[in-house]
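Reopening this ticket.

The earlier resolution said the output was attached, but the attachment link was broken on my side. Pasting everything inline this time so it's all in one place.
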Amino acid sequence: MAKGFSTILNIMENNLSLEKNALRRYREFSGMVKDRELKDYFIELARAEGGHINGIVNTIRMIKDGRFEVSFICPVCGWRISFGKSPDVGEITRCRMCGISFELTEKDGDFDIRRI
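Inline output:
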């Protein structure tokens, strides 16, 4: 159920790979250094990478499960336009700020909007 998120999923999965590599490296470095401050710093960086990994995994899961909100920035006024979770291409919504209507479209596996 990841329709409309092709590019985003690709980027997130690549980022996940980089984050896992960084976590592994920081753990290795923390085990190699003698200086206590530097060791603690690498441990802190590893902990942060773990948080990044959890956030990315959860977002990927939400997208694939259809629980991730599809939203855009209104090209007219800059407000957020929401199509909700698991919308279908062709759905129409209105910007809550400026009142312009937009249709949800899909191009090359990614959601997009068209002003109507």
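Reporter confirms the inline version is readable. The longest strand covers residues 101-107. The beta strands are 69-73, 80-85, 92-94, 101-107, 110-115.
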